[in-house]
Amino acid sequence: MSSHPHIVLPWAVRRSRLPVLALRCVDCPSNRATVGDGRFRVNANGKLLDVWLLVNCLSCDRTGKLTVHDRVPVRSLPADLLAGYSANSPSLVVDTLLDPLIARRNRFALDWDGCWALHAPPIPDDPWPLQITVTFDDAVPVRPERLIARGLGISRDEIAHRVKIDIPLNRRTTLDFSFVLV
Ligand SMILES: [Zn+2]
Fold this sequence. Notes:
By secondary structure, this protein is of the alpha+beta class. It folds into two domains: about 5-15 and about 115-180, no CATH class; about 20-110, no CATH class.
């Protein structure tokens, strides 16, 4: 790459709302569900606790449950965590929904379509070559190619020819990266 000084622009990826769950409904053909405002259900059975995060089918509104804790000793959960479940703490809802272990355990994937925004300053006149640094303020998995197309309004073909980047354009990432547009 040339030693020509670049103009460096910062981009940021942020969550605009919670993603939809790709989760099969048991009552209808839909496979899309939402946590809505976020509600936990806590059930004590003697000294054991079950904790679920409730989800609703986006088609028929059936309520389903994601297992968060399954028959764990009450004493094994910190008091503030338990209080958070009981109070439907919004940040705990986010942490639970975005926890990969919870997703694996309950066999759902997250659909981030339309749930994130790219915050980008305007591109100056005559900016080439241009270096752009992408920071993920939230861990939204996006394909670099899609992000660049959205930010610059250029085609995939143009991206393939003009973008110099060290990571795969087509593999989703949540890690900060940068690229140069020539
Ligand atoms: Zn349904």
